[in-house]
């Protein structure tokens, strides 16, 4: 291919995206696991996010950070995936290793299962900010940017989600 300004710009764009994806791919995957509940689904979602991000990278205007932009794509892809599959979401819960008696293990497993089920029953608009704050450690401001809602709405949704979980789980929490 002969050199041209357009080819040079495209090469630079692809190199910039490759650097961004290398830095953020693992975070995208972890968020995909948290939102889908499945490592296998997370692999597929991460691949889809990468394709969509590459396709849209030329339109990225830098109004937010690149990682926020990728997180927004990830949330959108995961929500569309959930809508398509209409399956319940089970959050990834690798059991912590350690010396725990069988009775305590059973109680812990039951509590974990009940908590997962309660989170799965939350509507997407409540579950998504809860997952983003609890598993991804995002700030309310970052969540507001990702979800394109006011920060007050993020706070309200988190409060409502936690309230529903407390009501449903009671002493389990």
UniProtKB/TrEMBL annotation:
The record, for Pfam families, names:
Sigma70_r2, Sigma70_r4_2
**GO BP, sorted A to Z:** DNA-templated transcription initiation
Q: Which positions fall inside the RNA polymerase sigma factor 70 region 4 type domain?
A: 113-165
Q: Record's CDD domains?
A: Sigma70_r4
What are the UniProt keywords, alphabetically?
DNA-binding, Sigma factor, Transcription, Transcription regulation
Q: Residue ranges of the RNA polymerase sigma-70 region domain?
A: 20-86
Location of region: Disordered: 88-108
Q: Which domain of life is it from?
A: Bacteria
Record-stated family:
Belongs to the sigma-70 factor family. ECF subfamily.
List the PANTHER family: RNA POLYMERASE ECF-TYPE SIGMA FACTO, RNA POLYMERASE SIGMA FACTOR HI_1459-RELATED
Q: What is this protein called?
A: RNA polymerase sigma-70 factor (ECF subfamily)
**Native source organism of the sequence:** Armatimonas rosea
